[in-house]
Structures are given as C-alpha cells and as structure tokens.
Write a structure and sequence with these properties.
The complex is a heterodimer of chains A (235) and B (776). Helices cover 20% and strands 17% of the residues of chain A. Chain A is an alpha+beta fold and 235 residues long. In chain A, the strands form 4 sheets. A 4-stranded mixed beta sheet of chain A has the order 8-1-10-9. A two-stranded antiparallel sheet of chain A has the order 2-3. In chain A, strands 4-5 form a two-stranded antiparallel ribbon. The longest helix of chain A is centred in the last third of the chain and has 13 residues, at 158-170. Helix content of chain B is 33%, strand content 16%. Chain B is built from 27 helices and 28 strands. In chain B, β16 (456-459), α18 (466-470) and β17 (473-474) form a beta-alpha-beta unit. The longest helix of chain B has 21 residues, at 5-25. The termini of chain B are far apart. The chains are: A alpha+beta (235), B alpha/beta (776). Chains A and B meet through α1, α2, β2 and β3 of A and α1, β3, α2, α6 and α7 of B.
Chain lengths: 235, 776
C-alpha cells in the first residue's frame, strides 16, 4: 500500500472481459447509487436515457463465425480529457486524483463536451428528474439530484472517495486498497471490475494494467484513458 | 428575484436560438419523460441516522446475501453480503434494483375481492372469512380434495403449505419438480431417481459443453452461474476452462463460449447422442463408472451405435461430421468434462428425452456425482415441523387421485390438462401460493381460460401479476424486504446453504406474511388443520426448524472465504467446525451473518444420489424413449418442418438480467433488458439477414409474428447470430407488468406461441412452435 498523501493517487479501473458475463449489474448499481432517474420508453427510444455505466455490444465476423462482445463502459476518466478543453464555463475539471468531475451549478448545458467526448459518455438532462410513484423514496442521500438542462457523467462515485478519505483521515492513515470502490466495482458478481490506484505499482489495477491482455478504447486518440480492459482468451 | 449567471446565459442562448431557428422549434418539445404519476425525488435530510441490515435477496430464486442500507427509515441502497457463499458481495441487476421493490407503485396495497367483475379493496377479516368459509364448506361436503395449491415457494413455506393440505385433506400440492424455482431436473429424476435439484461443478470442470441458452442467462442463480463462469475462466491455477455452446442462436452464453455450434433447433438430443455414439465407438467411455454404477447401459449402447452415426447426426442437426467427431473426442478426453442443459424442461416426451440424452453424455464419461460433474446437493438439515394431526375426512381427501399423478411428476401441463376437463373431478379452489400459475402455463389465452375454471381463485401475490389480475381474492404477501423467511439453496459445488431473510423495512402496505395467512385459513377451516399450526408467526417456525442445524453440529455460519478450507478440514477429520453454547447464540449468529452453510460434499453417498429401483444410474428410460416403438423418435422432429404457411421455427430464450424475476417490473431492470441486442423497452424478434432479405424487411421494421395460436407485434432485429430458418424472441421476466409501469415486453413471446408451458429452465427449441412474420 502506498504511503502517499491525500490527492496524489491516480484512480483507475481495469475491466476483465474474460470474467465479465455482460450481466449489467454494474449498470443498475450505478443507476441506484447515483440517483439516475429511469428513462421513459420514449426517452430511451430517442437515445436520451442516461447510463453513466452502459453495456455496449460489438459484433464481429460473419455467421457462423460471428462473435458478440459485450463491453461495460463507464467514463474513461482520461488523463488528457477532450471534454474539459471545450467547456466554455469551466464546469468540467480534472481533480488532483485524476477524476474528471462535472460541476452542475456551473454547467450551462451547451453540450460542447458531449460532442467532444470521443466515447460519447456524457449525458444531457433532457427532462426534469422524476420517479414513478414512491420510487423516489429510495434515493441515495450522498448524491445530489441533477436538474434539467445540465450535463452529467460518471464520477467514479466520487462521493465514496470523500467518505473513504474522511474515514482514513480520522484514523490518521492512508486509504487502504479496496476501501474506496465505485458502486459498479462493488456490485460486480464476477469481480471483473478492479479499481484502485494506478500509481501504486503493487495495486491490483496497476498490475493488471500491465498485463499483455490489457488495452484501452480508442487509444490512438491520445486521450490516455484510466479505464483499461483485459481481452478474453489465454495469456 | 435574482438573476443567476446560468439564467443569464440560458436567456441569451434562448434568445439567440429563438431568432435563429424559430420555425424549427415549433412542435419540438421533448416528449413526456416519465409516467403521469412520476414525482420529483426528495433526498433524506442531511445527517439522518443510517443503519445496515443483513438479509437475503428474494428478487429471483438465486438466494444471494444482501446488506440493506437505510437512511431515515428509507431503503436507499442494497449491496451484496460479502460473507454469503453464493454471491460473496456481488449482486445482479435484479437484486440491486430491489431498492425499488418495496416502493413499487404496482403493489397490491391490501386484500382485494372480486365483486361484479371488478377487484375492490376489502378488509382482511372479510377476505379471510370468505376463503375460510368456502374451505370449511367444501370439507364438510367431503370435497376437500378439490382444493389445489400451486406452490412457488421453497423451504419452510413449502412445508407449511404441505402441512396445511395434509391436515385439510387434499393431495394437490402442485409445484414440485418442474414448477419449482430450483428445479429437480426431470432427466436427473428419471435416471437417478432423486427429487433434488442438481449442481454443476463448473468451477472444477476442465471442459464445459453447454446446451441451450440456460446457463448464463437462464440459471436459477444468475450470480452463482456468473461467478462459476468467472472462476472457471480465470480463477484457477490449472488454466482456463474451455467452453463449447450448442444453440441455434448466438446468445450471451454462446458469445462467451470458445466455440459456438449453431444447431438446427430441436435436434439437441440427436447431437448429444451423436457424441455418445462417438465416445462409445472409440472406447473413450468411463468403464469404471458404467460397470460400477450403470444400469441398462448395453441397451442404450446398442441403440446409439445403430442409429446415431455421425453422418446421420450431421444430416439432422446441421453440424459438420468433423465437428461431431472432434467434440466427442475432446469431451471424453478432457476430464472432468461436464455437459450442461439436462434441465431441459417442457411438455411432452421430447424435452425429457433431450435432458436425458445430455445427462447420458455426462454419465458415459463418469461426470455424475464426481468432481467437476453433476452433483446432487444434500438438503439443509432442518428439524421436521410437527406432523399435523389427521382425521378421517382429511385421510379420505388425501387419498383422492392427485392432479399431478401418483408420483407428482405431471408439472404445469398436468394442471392445464386437468382444468381443461381431463381430470376426474373439478377443482373448486385454487390457491396460487408464491406463484403465478397463469404465467407458468404460458400466459396466453389458453392459460387464462384454464385458470378461469376454478370457482375460487386465490392469489397471495404482492403485485398484480397475471394470476392476481384474474383472481377472485387477492391476499397480498409482504415483499421479500418486509418478511422473515428461510432460503435454502446450494452452491455450484453442491454445498447446502441456508440464507436467512429478515425484515429490512416494516410492511409498507396492509399486507401479511403468506405462510401466516395460510395457517390462519387452516385454523379457520373445520377439522384438525387448526391444530396443525401451534406457532404464532413465521419467525417461530424458522426457529423451530433451525434447531436441527444447530443440533447436527455440521457446517458453519457464513464467514470470509478464507474460512472455508478450515471448516472443510475440520469436518473431514470428524471435528465440529463451530461450537455454540446455546441455541440462542447460534440463532443470533445466523441472523447477524446472514445464514449457514456446510462446505463439504461427500462423494461417497451413493444411496442418496442414486435412488432408482436398481440403486444404479439408469440408462433405461432414455433407451426406452429411443426405441422406434416409443413414438417421438430421436428428438429430431423439430427439424422436419412446420405446418404449411409457417416457415420459421420459433426459438425462445431467457433474457439476461431478467430471468426468474419475482418482483413487479422495476423500471431500472426494464431499462437494461435487451441492451446486448441494442433493444430497449419493447418486444423484438430476431431474424438472420437472409431471412429478413427474403421478407424484404429491414432492421427496425414493425412486424407481426404469428403462430397458429395468434400474433404479437414486435420490432425486427436483423441479427447474423440467428441460424437461418429460425425466429428468435426473448422470454420476458416472470409475471406481467402491472398498471403504472405497464410498458414494454407486455404479453410475452411465450404467450404468443400459445405454448402449453413456459420453460423455467431452458429456453431453446420447443418442438412444434412455428411462426411467420409480416410487416405490421
């Protein structure tokens, strides 16, 4: 475990596609944790559903040698994020811990960032947030509800980092590995999502990111994502 | 009023937009984003007290451990219990969306009675008096046997239902075997004589041959199956397990396999027997197992060697000869290998035959009751509940012919046939106890009509499911987050597990524990049923039965994964792994840890695993079904062709993340359904590109899918992962969508097909369902 001080971690994620079954527990875990209102069928049909974590299918090859790959896709939390550069009001920033944050109170809803993101992982709130019946009773008190007209995105469950930090600070120690996990990583039934400090060479994520199976999405764009994938198969 | 910066910018933007594209904006308002009763969310107050409760999920039959997070008395999050051996802290989509189950707008809020054709609210007293009055009356007229109970529960709730019927006097406790969530597979019952469900030791297999789409999407425990998969792939030092998947569609399971065999639907049995043929012809069978344990093997051997030559198999299944030969060699030589899919289940002889053919494949390589093979988990050592008293009327009622037949093997099809007039007496009262028989019978017209036959249909459902909607009385149960319950299950390695469910929330509506209501009905009906339930509430029943576990001294409370080896070592050497000074101490531990398990599987218990008359593994039932005189020959009639005008064979498959859903339709779950096919919120049908071209239909077209039973509208998805000649449709989650959230996947595809039985375990080809597709 690293002894680095607060704020010097570089949080990253490694998704092992050989463990992932595509069950979408991560998707639902994220929706519940982050108070994302369920879309209406019409909104979903228009591509306006908000899914910070989404399952993206890729088909390759032809029958009968077709392959179907299911890739869980959160915000890539780029080290060189294109979304930040286009924001006219500084509503999106990269913190010291490498997490790309969205400041809702500053966002003017221009959606330059949703266009700039090559992974299309930023979502605009087209509607007032609403929940059918009493479902709004189950909201997570740790995460604010976003108003209509702002852009939102995966935060690596930043509120959990704050809690872990507070706890560690109160006990006068650094954050332990596994103490801070986003909801998707915590819920994953197959432990396909590893999460931790990429700068800590001993951490699981740092080890896995160095695996020969590791790759990142659209690596050639130079965005330096902090989300890695491990491809299926041997080695 | 102050004008904020954002308002200012917004205003500027709006003004600019309005002038620039005023004509474009007309009629450009976003469509309504949520159902009409949707409300804004309000967060609990800051600093509100927070607490965690350990319990067991009940969203599907999987039985995962959960930890519920409560803030200010509101359930705001559910996460997995890291100590629970089934899920070890993980959870699936259904379980996570369970935070919405208690707050669901479609819950039944109190007892309902039908009057003048409509369900209306009633008091518990009124509803109970009506049902108990009818039960009393029937019993006094010597008609207690005409009361039937369809049971979807397990564990002690099931025992209470059994006691109720025994004391009251009816043989009709339906819902064993093929109805049950964790099924005893008919194939295993036929060949091993056991009534218990099977476990597949995927974690220790070196080669997995999976038939049908059941194993990742349709597993009774989605989390258990996913974990076994991940462990088999990456959790072992001995290397990565190889998986071959046999199905006519590239399902999620097939996509995760190393090799996909797109087989002609309905010929899976032929393929399995073709593999058996090759294994036998090349002398690769496990002689030790067959000689010591087998019975009727020579009979099967002669038939298979005669009729299942790879050439013939290839012709019927569409799988190349070389593939059959190669896979047979590989299956027999990579020990332990296991074939998954013997839970093939459905009407008629053929699904059973398919299941038996797959199970025979396991048996010839010795993958039965062996490491890495098919295991029979021992039951949780509960104390038996006290035997209910009996009187003469009850004994007479119990002696009447049973709907499911003497050995109770009829399954849902038997109930349907009985209700349609083939039974020897009419059913006067049908109790849907933790089950939705309309949906189990396929949910179509025929099922609805059959369930309209009993003069009194009683549902205990928490939601307005298909059965509750046509019931005469609804006695709503709590949702799983509000009740005490036991959840006996097992791991993929065959270890028995008892999950404990305790209330996370107080009941939100005027609902009651279904087992307690059943006991109350028993007390109110005439005769000894009243004395059968000396307990006050269900928690007391649990405490009664759990004493057996405490006394047995076996196993241990849930603990960290590292403790497993310790418990196993202790037990294998004849020691107790855990000691408790008193039962109270054991009970407290059980409640706080979430349950108990026994991480030891005894491979030597042959008498428990083989309960056929011969005491051996019986190949006879399969051989008998393959004899030409048996009619349904070789499971291959599916390939023969459908009725004129219906050129496509329907393939129904379970949907990832939806299988076994016992709750109402939760919007968050609806939202993830079909994402793997880039579909959402509506029913779709998949066709191969050549079939779609032949119909001159493109991706996304609105079409009508028709069988001779009726039609349903769906959106066309052109998917190269479907075998040409096949139309694939998802089977929706269990239960019908309710009122407020009634959207998407409404009348399920199974209903469209008018299938006699909905398949709980396997989703592949049902013989005889042929459809045609036209533009809507």
């Amino acid at each position: 475990m690293s002894e680095r001080a607060k704020g010097s971690q570089r949080w990253g994620m490694v998704v092992d596609l050989d463990r992932c079954t595509g069950c979408q527990a991560c998707v639902t875990a994220c929706q519940v944790e982050n108070n994302i209102p369920p879309p209406s069928p019409e909104a979903a049909a228009r591509g306006r559903a908000i899914r910070w974590m989404d399952l993206v299918p890729y088909q390759e090859g032809e029958y009968p040698h077709l392959k179907l790959r299911l890739v869980p896709r959160p915000c890539m939390q780029c080290d060189n994020p294109p979304c930040i550069k286009v924001c006219p009001v500084g509503a999106t920033t990269k913190g010291e811990d490498g997490i790309v944050a969205q400041i809702y109170a500053r966002c003017i809803g221009c959606r330059y960032c949703t266009t700039a993101c090559p992974y299309t992982l930023r979502y605009f709130n087209w509607y007032e947030p609403r929940w059918p019946g009493d479902l709004g009773q189950a909201l997570n008190p740790d995460v604010s509800i976003r108003p209509k007209g702002v852009v939102e995105k995966c935060t690596f469950c930043h509120h959990r980092l704050q809690k872990a930090r507070d706890r560690a600070a109160a006990e006068g120690r650094p954050i332990l590995e596994g103490e801070y996990l986003p909801a998707c990583a915590e819920a994953c039934p197959t432990r396909a999502i590893a999460f931790g400090d990429l700068d800590d060479p001993g951490s699981e994520v740092a080890r896995e990111a160095r695996s020969p199976r590791a790759f990142r999405l659209l690596e050639d764009l130079g965005t330096e994502p902090k989300v890695y994938y491990l491809r299926e198969g041997e080695a | 009023m102050t004008l904020g910066r954002r308002d200012f910018v917004k205003g500027m933007q709006a003004a600019a937009m309005a002038t620039a594209c005023a004509p474009l904006l007309a009629g450009c308002r976003p469509p309504g984003s949520a159902p009409p009763d949707a409300r804004p969310g309000v967060l609990p107050p800051r600093g509100a007290p927070e607490s965690w409760v350990v319990s067991t999920c009940g969203a599907c039959p999987g039985g995962c451990g959960i930890r519920a997070r409560l803030v200010a008395g509101r359930l705001v999050g559910i996460s997995g219990n890291p100590l629970h051996p089934i899920n070890r802290g993980g959870l699936c989509s259904l379980g996570l969306a369970g935070v919405h189950a208690a707050y669901h707008p479609d819950r039944v809020r109190g007892p309902l009675l039908r009057s003048a054709g409509e369900l209306r609210s009633a008091s518990w007293e009124e509803a109970l008096a009506l049902v108990a009055g009818r039960l009393r009356d029937l019993r006094q007229r010597g008609l207690s046997h005409t009361v039937a109970l369809v049971d979807g529960t397990r564990g002690l709730s099931r025992q209470v239902a059994g006691q109720f019927l025994a004391a009251y006097g009816s043989p009709n406790h339906l819902g064993g075997r093929s109805w049950n969530d964790i099924q005893a597979t008919p194939a295993v019952s036929a060949m091993q004589g056991v009534d218990a469900a099977s476990a597949y030791d995927l974690e220790n297999a070196r080669f997995i041959m999976a038939f049908g789409s059941g194993w990742l999407e349709g597993a009774w425990s989605p989390v258990g199956a996913a974990r076994a998969y991940a462990l088999a792939r990456r959790g072992r030092k001995s290397g990565r397990v190889q998986v071959v998947h046999v199905e006519s569609r590239l399902s999620v399971s097939a996509a995760h396999a190393d090799e996909w065999i797109p087989i002609q639907p309905g010929t899976e049995a032929v393929f399995a027997l073709g593999l058996v043929h090759m294994v036998l012809r090349e002398g690769l069978e496990n002689r030790d197992f067959i000689d010591q344990w087998g019975h009727g093997f020579e009979w099967l051997r002669a038939l298979v060697l005669r009729d299942y030559h790879p050439d013939a198999v290839s012709e019927r299944t569409g799988v190349p000869v070389a593939t059959v030969v190669r896979l047979a060699r590989r299956f027999a030589s990579s020990r332990p290998a296991v074939a998954v899919g013997d839970d093939w289940n459905g009407p008629g002889a053929q699904p059973l035959q398919t299941g038996m053919a797959i199970h025979a494949l396991n048996a010839v390589v010795g993958a039965v009751n062996a490491r890495g093979g098919v295991l029979t988990p021992p039951p949780v050592p509960f104390d038996a509940l006290p035997t209910p008293p009996s009187d003469e009327r009850g004994a007479r009622g119990r002696g009447a012919p049973a709907i499911e037949g003497e050995r109770g093997r009829g399954g849902p099809a038997a109930l349907q046939a009985w209700l349609e007039g083939q039974g020897s007496y009419p059913v006067n009262v049908l109790l849907a106890f933790g089950s939705d028989p309309v949906s189990l019978l396929g949910g179509g017209q025929r099922a609805r009509a059959a369930l309209r036959k009993p003069p009194l249909l009683v549902s205990f459902s928490s939601f307005l499911d298909d059965t509750a909607r046509q019931a005469d009385v609804v006695l709503p149960d709590h949702v799983y987050l509000e009740r005490w319950q036991d959840d006996p299950t097992f791991t993929s390695r065959g270890f028995p597990v008892l999950g404990l469910r305790q209330p996370v929330l107080p009941p939100r509506h005027d609902t009651r524990h279904a087992a307690e209501v059943l006991a109350e009905l028993g007390r109110r009906s005439d005769g000894p049923a009243g004395e059968a339930f000396p307990w006050r509430d269900f928690r007391e029943v649990m405490r009664l039965a759990v004493r057996g576990i405490h006394r047995s001294g076996r196993g241990a409370l849930f603990d960290v994964p590292e403790a497993e080896a310790w418990v196993e070592t202790m037990e294998r050497n004849g020691w107790r792994a855990s000691r408790f000074d008193s039962f109270e101490e054991f009970w407290t531990g059980l409640v706080s840890r979430g349950g108990w398990w026994d991480p030891v599987y005894d491979f030597g218990e042959r008498g428990r695993v083989l309960r056929t008359p011969s005491g051996r593994f019986d190949f006879g039932p399969l051989a008998r079904s393959l004899e030409p005189s048996a009619g349904a020959e070789g499971g291959g009639s599916g390939a023969a062709g459908g009725p004129a005008g219906y050129p496509l064979q329907l393939h129904l498959y379970p949907l990832l993340a939806a299988f076994g859903d016992r709750q109402g339709p939760l919007p968050l779950v609806q939202d993830v359904l079909g994402r793997e096919m880039e579909q959402s919120w509506e029913l779709w049908v998949e066709l191969s590109p050549p079939d779609a071209r032949a119909l001159r239909l493109g991706d996304g077209a609105r079409v009508i899918v028709e069988s001779d039973q009726g039609g349903v509208e769906a959106r066309l998805k052109v998917y190269p992962g479907v075998r040409p000649g096949v139309a694939a449709m998802p089977m929706g989650p269990g239960g019908a969508p309710g009122r407020a959230l009634r959207r998407a996947l409404p009348e399920q595809a199974a209903a469209l097909a008018g299938l006699a039985v909905r398949l709980p375990g396997a989703g592949s080809a049902l013989p005889g369902t042929w459809v045609r597709i036209r533009e809507a």
